[in-house]
Amino acid sequence: MSRANAAPDPARIEAPPAVTWIVRTLEDRGFETWTVGGAVRDALLGHPSGDWDLATRARPGEIRRAFKRTVPVGIEHGTVGVLARDGIMYEVTTFRRDVETDGRHAVVSFADRIEEDLARRDFTINAIAWHPLTERLLDPFHGREDLGAGLLRTVGEPAERFEEDYLRVLRAIRFAGRFGLRVADETWDAMRAVVDRLPDLSAERIRDELVKVLDTDPRPSIALRLYADSGALAVLYPELEARRTVPATTQEGGDPPSEWDVCCATVDTLPVANATLRLAALMWGLAHDEAAALLMRLRLSNAQMDRTLLLATTPELPPPHATDTDFRRWLSRTGLEVWPAAVRLQFAFATTRARLGLATDDDAESLEASWKRARAICDQKPPLSVGDLELNGRDLIALGLKPGPRFGTILEGLLSWVLEDPARNRHELLAERVQEKIGDA
Ligand code: ATP
Ligand code: MG
Fold it and tell me: How many angstroms separate the alpha carbon of residue 39 from the centre of ligand 2?
């Protein structure tokens, strides 16, 4: 098969009217302007394109003068946001070239030619420009052929390009996984050679790359395997790397999948645009402390961190024949807000394990029976948190107790007692119990 024959057809490309309007406005003023990057690549692949980015010879001041509504989104990099009539903000960036790089940051200067701008881009498939007025495709690095051949390659010398910006290693993994591309040998060797430098990147950039895989890739397992095979997993996420050597079954014989394999296969069954759920699946089975340490390093927001940690480390639903108290304790620990997602994860794992021959369908059935019981108990709206108790801190003061950290312990104790029997949640009974306990102390 000839590579050129397999290359996708540029006739597929269709830019939104607002993009064409921006290009025309700038060109009418004498500034050459192109669409570039991800949207051109996606359009060639026949994927719906998200962000249309534009590159222009106009300098930022000139871009701002050409349009009524602009936002200086990254003026130091030469990027101006143009608010178009369709209500979308398009990023318009002055042609640039790299002057200095150190693996973490690039110092750029403006350039006069689109070719220079394309040459500083990371991969051939991301270095294609398309002109919506002339419908001309400018592809000096043969990105279209690479797309057709299913190949990911750097623009220029791989080792140099990764030394300039280590993030490109993680971007390569993400694009190769997302588009099912094979990483060209020299590119792959150069990636492996710099994985040890990945921790030099800021935690935010590292995290954002992983989150993008989980958020946008319908089958993250391919990119995740590349994280593992390249060595990036061991360097950035040693807790997850360790799971690769834990067999997923204690049964003898064969070559059983690892716990890591099971997590990756389960992540694939969960929907895109739910990175929290997928991240929790990826971290499934980690000890609480390990999971917490990993999430701290990712620098997620506190709310995201709490939710992910809870999801990743929630114990299994009690078996179907367990007592109501067991179920109430489980619901109370997991929380009303998180428990449906926690059960969804457990289902996803049970189904994946059954599919991989690591469990029987009975496990999924028993999980379903447990889930029904949990739901029935939820419907009775039993008190499940300290806030649901018919006695609060103010009542404790009224009973003559001095406010302090002890209040938390007392209320938790009352909740535990009420979880055994919701009928105990009456003010007089709770007050009586507090007094008894104080008497004991
Ligand atoms: P997506 O938005 O789907 O993640 P994208 O290709 O649009 O993919 P962006 O991060 O939006 O990626 O960047 C837009 C373009 O800018 C890329 O296509 C690439 O040409 C260039 N680019 C982005 N990051 C880098 C980098 N670290 N090194 C070199 N070029 C880059
Ligand atoms: Mg983009």
Answer: 7
pLDDT (tens digit, 9 = 90+) per residue, 301-337? 999 999 999 999 999 999 999 999 999 999 999 999 9
Q: How far is the CA of 56 from the centre of ligand 1 (A)?
A: 16
Nearest ligand by distance to the CA of 174: 1
- pLDDT of 411-432, one tens digit each? 999 999 999 999 999 999 999 9
Collapsing DSSP to helix, strand or coil, 269 comes out as helix
Query: CA 270, CA 287: separation in Å to the nearest integer?
Result: 22
Here the tokens at position 119 are 């040459």
Q: Is 37 in the pocket of ligand 1 (CB under 6 A)?
A: yes
User: What does pTM read for this prediction?
Assistant: 0.92
List pLDDT tens digits, range 113-167.
999 999 999 999 999 999 999 999 999 999 999 999 999 999 999 999 999 999 9
CA distances from 403 to 410, 425, 428 (A): 11, 22, 20
Tell me the ligand closest to 105's alpha carbon: 1
What's the gap in Å between 146 CA and the centre of ligand 1?
17
The sign of the CA dihedral 212, 215, 217, 223 is: positive
